[in-house]
Amino acid sequence: MSATLPSRRSLATESLVFASWLFTRWRRQPAILIQSLLFPTFLLITYKLLAGKSIMRITGTDSLYSLVPMCAVAGAMFGALASGRSIPYERRSGLLGRLWVFPVSRASALTGRLLAEAARTLGSTALITAVGVGLGLRFKGGWLAVIPFVLVPVLVVVVFSMAVIAIAVRSKTGAVLVWLAIPSIGSVFSSSGVPRVDALPSSVRMQIHFGPFWPTIESMRALALGAPALWPLLLTGVWALGLAAVLGPLAIRGYRAAAESPH
Fold first, then answer.
1. Would residue 241 count as lying in a domain?
2. CA spacing 20 to 30 A to 172: which of 44, 233, 244, 261?
3. Model-wide pTM > 0.90
């Protein structure tokens, strides 16, 4: 009489289990909540109160239509950096190695982390958008535009998290993530979220327009204003796919090497 082997769960189910485990851990890490939600919300309110009228006089457009996208994207990236600092500890403690030998798909731990980052970003973007609506943000093209509006930062953070993972698994302390944080967050704040791009020198305008965050901010801004958003959304997708094609294999190889190496 042959024994019946238990059926393997699907990759999606296993990824959900790992994502739920990460959420349980994040509840004990207030830095992630602060950096992904409280800080960008405080930043949005501060910018609106201190610079809102000045930006309105200069651009003729309410600053919220750029500030809310900028703060949502920045919050997503801050949260990914905060959660990524725990990866070197997981490697040193042998946790990555133990997860690697579980009788589950080896891709589930990595996809579960990306899924958790996406879910966290979706929640934080929805709350930051709600605060923006409370301050005066309106979706002039209809409320259906809210759906792609909150999904754009989710796309950004999935790709950005690949970079965080690729770097963090090779670090002993996670301090090296500062070198990723400085140019990345700087690029967000120097995009079209705050400055009036057409008032900048041509060389600076070119750098902003060819950066990955200009179409990201502009697509969200266009969605809120009811303006044509197809072109910036396409550019955002091209940037995301291109970076994912480079960063994804690096994250996978780095994660595997960290899981299989001795502490």
1. yes
2. 244
3. no
In a domain, 161, yes or no: yes
| Residue 35 per-residue DSSP state | I
The count of residues in the chain is 263
Alpha-carbon distance of 29 to 82, in angstroms, equals 9
Nearest residue to 116 (alpha-carbon basis) of 29, 43, 188, 205 = 29
What is the span of the domain harbouring residue 220?
A: 11-260
Mean pLDDT, residues 168-180 taken together: 78
Burial string for 236-262 (b: 16+ CB within 10 Å, else e) reads beebbeebbeebbebbbebbeebbeee
Q: Provide the domain count of the chain.
A: 1
The answer as to whether 1 is a domain residue is: no
Q: What is the pLDDT of residues 205-232, one digit of tens each?
A: 666 667 788 889 989 999 999 999 999 9
**How far is 122 from 157, CA to CA, in rounded Å?**
10
Residue 112 and residue 18 in contact, taking contact as beta carbons nearer than 8 Å:
yes
Assigned domain for 139 exists: yes
If you search the block for the tokens 């093209």, which residue do you land on? 141
Tell me the two tokens of residue 129.
Answer: 């958008």
Q: Which long-range contacts (CB under 8 A, 24 or more apart) does 57-64 make?
A: 58/196, 58/199, 59/196, 61/225, 62/136, 62/137, 64/132, 64/135, 64/136, 64/137
